[in-house]
Structures are given as structure tokens and as C-alpha cells.
User: Which sequence fits this backbone?
């Protein structure tokens, strides 16, 4: 940034994602603001916490002006859990991890074969009950690999085995699926706009599919991955027989494999459209309006690495800001991108907590104070303050 640009910087927009495991997106913005104001109290700092559809999406929506609605739904293990969605007028943001995420599993406990997305369907139904007509389904952080079958069941679909009995919860049970009747889905879905917001574009099946890529993260062994992949194949075949060739073709659609295949259930069963999560939420949260007065955008997330370059929040923020000619810098816990990679993503420079505290455990434990120190340095070097 030139010296002239530094002198002009009077409005800063902090649009960062969470630092997973240490700080929420709201907390990131607060600590950055505190650090900037230590050395540049005259600078106006606005915050717009962002998310890409995974953990923290509802929190970001609430910080952006949505109302939090909390209820009890079915958790991934079938037990009741408390979950929330966000509502503003007739738009609802539903985060599947709120109902069906790994966060609801006890430490060290996984259920790759039986975990269900039923609670996510209950959240969608609650949003419809509240008057939502645009449903943004953010997916990520799931404990499930059931292809969204639980979600569809909660919304009225009938998924039956050869005896006409509803199949059991979870992905493994889909191997016994014989017939599917989606004519019984909640009729309000047909009149709603449903957006599948995800930062991954995996297909449903195969070596890059839901079970193979993400099953091991949910505790699936190699044998269980193969079982789940086959069960998802049976699920797609039955839905294809019920809905036609488009349902079969959607197996390879971008996002079908997102969050244990819930993307496939949303695309095929709910008629959802797929969009990169960060693009959706920048629109929903009003990023364009927030950007209008900004001279500088500060984005970031816990780890800026190769995954960041594939649709994560900081790259989406940088692209949108760059299109308006607003410079972007980033803060992070760990930096694993070269200056050239950062520049290619539209980020002029990144400041990492690891530069101050190289021990990861201590860095995460002290993330707030460290981030304020990073922001002080950023203010000095980017804003030109002493």
C-alpha cells in the first residue's frame, strides 16, 4: 500500500471467518478492532463476521442482523440437541452442523454408519413454519454420511425397504433402500428458493466422493467407507427410479458430496441450487453495502493454506473487495501460503499469530491477545500509524 493510500485509510472493514478451535468470527473482529484502535483510535472500524457455510454460519448471520431462533431437534445420534437457525424477514440461514454436526458427538465417539441428518430437516421445517421462503442451507462440519436421507425424511419423504418399512437412520441403512416417495414432502418446499451453500464441490460417490474423502474424518474405516459408498449408490439408484435421470446425473454434480452427501439430498430432493458458500453469505450479509465506505478490508481465518485457495471465506472476501478496488490484508493463526499465492488470491499481505507464538497450543490458547498484537503491527505497517 502506498504512503498516500495509508494517509487516506480512515475506514476499515473487518470481514474475517472464525479461527477454528480458538475464536469465533465475532471475536476475531473484536480483537482486531481493539488492536487497531490502540494505535489508530481515529480510524473507523466496521465488522462483518463472515462464514462459508460450515461451523459458525448462524453466528455470522446473527452478527449481520439476523434473529437467532433456537429449538430442540434430533441430533446425529438420535438424541435431542439444541440447535439454532437465523431469520431475517423471509430469509432463513440454516447451518446443518447446528443439528447434525460433529460438535454433537461425545469426545472420541463417532457414528459414521448411523449418524443422521434428521435434525437438519427439522430446522428447515421450523424455518418454513416461521415464514421463510428463501432457505440458505450451509453445510460443513457434519457427523453424517447419509446423503441427506434423514433430512428428507424429516421433511416428509418416505424412504422404505423391500418390506415397506422406513429404513433405519444413517448411511449404512441406505443399502436396504428399495423405494422412495418424495410426493409427501412438505408442499411449502416447492414454493421456496433453496440454496445449497458449500465450500466443497465433491461428487456424491467415488474416490473424491462423500464417503471416501470425508468418511475417515468421521471415524469410518476403509471397510466402512466402501460400505457407505455402496449404500449411497443404492440411494441414488432408488431416487433415480423415483425422480428420473436427472437424479442419477446429480451424483456427479458439484456439491453433491458436501457434508456426507447432504448436498445430493438437497439438490435432488429439495430442488436446491448450488453456490459457493462464501459467495452466498457475502450476498446475504450485505457485504457490498458494507464495502462502500471501506478503504481497507481485513479478512482471515485460522489457517491460511492450500485449502483457503479453494473457495474458503478469505478468498471470497478478497475477490469481492478487489472487484471494487479495495485493498485486502489478512490475519490468521498459521500461514502456509507464499507471497505469490497470497497475491494471486487478492491478498496483499498476511499477519500470522505463529510469528509471535510458534507453539500451536499456546497460540490457540492465547489467540485473542496475540491477535490484538498482530493488529497493532498491521496498523503500523499498513495504515502507517506509529
Assistant:
Amino acid at each position: 500500500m502506498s504512503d498516500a493510500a495509508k494517509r487516506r485509510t480512515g475506514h476499515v472493514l473487518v470481514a474475517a471467518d472464525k479461527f477454528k478451535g480458538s475464536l469465533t468470527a465475532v471475536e476475531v473482529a473484536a480483537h482486531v478492532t481493539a488492536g487497531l484502535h490502540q494505535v489508530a483510535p481515529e480510524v473507523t472500524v466496521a465488522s462483518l463476521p463472515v462464514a462459508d457455510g460450515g461451523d459458525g454460519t448462524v453466528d455470522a448471520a446473527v452478527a449481520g442482523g439476523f434473529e437467532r431462533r433456537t429449538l430442540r431437534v434430533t441430533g446425529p445420534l438420535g438424541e435431542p440437541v439444541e440447535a439454532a437457525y437465523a431469520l431475517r424477514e423471509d430469509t432463513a440461514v440454516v447451518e446443518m452442523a447446528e443439528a447434525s454436526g460433529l460438535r454433537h458427538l461425545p469426545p472420541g465417539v463417532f457414528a459414521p454408519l448411523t449418524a443422521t441428518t434428521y435434525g437438519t430437516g427439522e430446522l428447515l421445517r421450523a424455518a418454513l413454519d416461521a415464514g421463510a421462503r428463501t432457505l440458505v442451507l450451509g453445510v460443513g462440519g457434519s457427523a453424517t454420511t447419509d446423503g441427506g436421507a434423514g433430512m428428507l425424511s424429516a421433511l416428509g419423504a418416505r424412504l422404505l425397504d423391500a418390506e415397506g418399512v422406513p429404513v433405519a437412520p444413517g448411511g449404512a441403512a441406505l443399502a436396504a433402500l428399495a423405494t422412495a416417495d418424495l410426493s409427501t414432502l412438505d408442499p411449502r418446499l416447492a414454493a421456496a428458493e433453496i440454496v445449497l451453500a458449500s465450500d466443497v464441490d465433491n461428487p456424491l460417490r467415488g474416490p473424491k466422493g462423500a464417503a471416501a474423502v470425508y468418511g475417515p474424518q468421521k471415524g469410518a474405516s476403509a471397510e466402512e467407507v466402501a460400505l457407505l459408498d455402496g449404500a449411497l449408490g443404492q440411494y441414488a439408484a432408488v431416487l433415480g427410479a423415483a425422480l428420473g435421470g436427472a437424479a442419477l446425473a446429480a451424483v456427479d454434480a458439484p456439491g453433491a458430496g458436501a457434508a456426507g452427501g447432504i448436498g445430493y439430498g438437497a439438490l435432488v430432493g429439495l430442488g436446491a441450487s448450488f453456490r459457493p458458500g462464501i459467495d452466498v453469505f457475502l450476498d446475504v450479509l450485505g457485504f457490498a453495502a458494507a464495502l462502500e465506505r471501506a478503504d481497507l478490508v481485513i479478512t482471515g481465518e485460522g489457517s491460511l493454506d492450500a485449502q483457503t485457495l479453494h473457495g474458503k471465506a478469505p478468498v471470497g472476501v478478497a475477490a469481492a473487495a478487489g472487484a471494487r478496488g479495495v485493498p485486502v490484508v489478512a490475519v490468521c493463526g498459521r500461514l502456509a501460503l507464499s507471497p505469490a499465492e497470497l497475491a494471486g488470491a487478492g491478498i496483499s499481505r498476511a499477519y500470522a499469530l505463529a510469528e509471535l507464538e510458534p507453539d500451536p497450543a499456546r497460540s490457540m490458547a492465547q489467540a485473542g491477545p496475540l491477535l490484538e498484537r498482530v493488529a497493532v503491527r498491521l496498523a503500523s505497517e499498513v495504515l502507517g500509524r506509529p
